[in-house]
Amino acid sequence: MMMIHRHHVLSMLFCLTLAILPAVADDSSIDPSATISDQVLEGVVTGIRGMVQIRQSEDEPWVKAQNGMKLSQGAEFRTGPRSSVQFRIPPDQIITLDRLGTVKLINAIAQNNKIKTDLGMSYGRTRYDIRKAGFEHESTIRSPSATLAVRGTRVGIQDGAMGFYAWSTQSRAQLYNKLSRQNLTFGEDTHVDSQGGAADNMQRQGTVYAGDDRSRDGDETFLDNTRPGDAANLYGSGGNNLTGNRAVSTNFEFGDNQANQFTGDLRFELFWDTYYGGDLTLTVLDPENYNSAVTPGPGNVPFPNATTELGDNFAADMTIGDAVNDYGGAGVTEVVNFTGTYPQAHVIGITNVYNGDYLSQNYTINIYQRDNSSEDFTQIGTFYDDVDDYKTNLHTVVITNGNEVSVSETVGVIDNISNLVTSN
Question: Is 218 exposed, middle or buried (0-12, 13-18, 19+ CB in 10 A)?
Answer without folding.
Answer: exposed
